[in-house]
Amino acid sequence: MGWGAEGVHNGVMTIARRELIDRERGGWHHVVSRCVRRAWLCGRDTRSGLDFSHRRGWIEERMLFLTEVFCVRVHGYAMMSNHCHIALEYRPREARELSEEEVARRWLKLYPPKRAELLEGAVEALLSDSERLAVLRGRLGDLSWFMGRLNEWVARRANREDGCTGRFWEGRFHSSRPMGSLAEVRACMAYVDLNPLRAGATRTVAEAGEHTSARRRVEEAEREAGKLGEPMAALRLEAGTGRVVTAGPGGLGWRLGAYLEHLEWAARCGWEKRVGRGAARPEAPRTLEDPDGFLKRVRRYHRRWGRKEGRGDLPRIELRPCRTGRGEAAEGC
After folding, report:
1. How would DSSP label each residue in 38-68?
2. Tens digits of per-residue pLDDT, 255-282?
3. Distance between CA atoms of residues 296 and 276, nearest Å
């Protein structure tokens, strides 16, 4: 008992983190951090009436900043009212290939000296300490260090804002086992991107929650004609503007326009609940090779991670055609 097919946990037993995360080869993971007790990460607290929605921007910006330091690539995320989902690729081998100077500069980007003019001296000091560099190299290739620096930073800032101390998160973070195929990765990303619809925070995939990967990808496609027809890639912060953009070659094996169609189809099918045999189902997009398998995997993620944040039926959504921003349909949709 424990982990079943598709790497989805059945909630019966807990598995040690060292058995879930391969620190030598890495892999694709779905990680979740949830606030303790009745704390609110980003939403409106129904008891006090206070609105913490601005914190969504905190965690999104910090998370993407940390991808410039640690060997982690973020492909999907959703910042919800009291928890956050992240679909990421953990790449510890990259840390072993970094030069000593790159290790030093990455670490000092995370923990810079008090004055900018002291940076080069701090770099030289680290380069002269091979043992310290070896420790830092290991940390840059450690998923727990990535999540720890994210959650610690958010907790400290939230506690300062709330004027309190103590635990903010219910634990470190929850993680799936490494995903074994791109089909599982696609289903995980779809589950993450569909969470705001389930919670009633938005009514369309095209207008997904503001601090979600789907929304950021749509915004980039609206700025750049033809983006919907390009292969999907990891997300990063654009230097100078701070906007969220895609980075590097597309390694996911599908195009953004097609992926958005798959999301909209899953939403119409009622991805978060079982549908009785013989029930009518919308016609699947032609770009989706295995509709039944895709929907089944998304529902498995929901059974593993779904809680009570979104109650009731999924809102009716409006299906919108994929467009490039110039009025024509995007190639690859």
Report:
1. T--SSSB-TTT--B-TTHHHHHHHHHHHHTT
2. 999 999 999 898 888 766 655 444 567 8
3. 13
- Residues shown for the chain: 333
At which residue do the structure tokens 């609206």 appear? 222
Q: How far apart are the first and last CA of the chain?
A: 40
Q: What are phi and psi of 255, to 5 degrees?
A: -95, 155
HSE (side-chain half, CA atoms, 13 Å) at 140: 28
Query: Using CA atoms, how far apart are residues 247 and 259, in angstroms rounded to an integer?
Result: 17
Helix (H, G, I), strand (E, B) or coil at 5: helix
Tokens of 181: 């195929």
What residues does 231 pair with on adjacent strands? Answer: 255
Q: How far apart are CA 195 and CA 80, in angstroms?
A: 8
Report the range of poorest mean pLDDT among 51-60, 184-193, 221-230, 301-310: 301-310
Strands 234-237 and 244-247: antiparallel
**In the chain, which ranges are E strands?**
27-34, 72-79, 83-90, 174-175, 234-237, 244-247
Q: Name beta bridge partners: 244.
A: 237
**pTM for this predicted structure:** 0.80
The residues, ordered by sequence, that sit 6+ positions from 292 with a Cβ below 8 Å of its Cβ are none
Q: Please, which residues bridge with residue 182 across strands? A: none
Q: How many CB atoms lie within 10 A of CB 39?
A: 20
pLDDT of 62 over the 70 cut: yes
Is there a contact between 193 and 214 (Cβ–Cβ < 8 Å)? Answer: yes
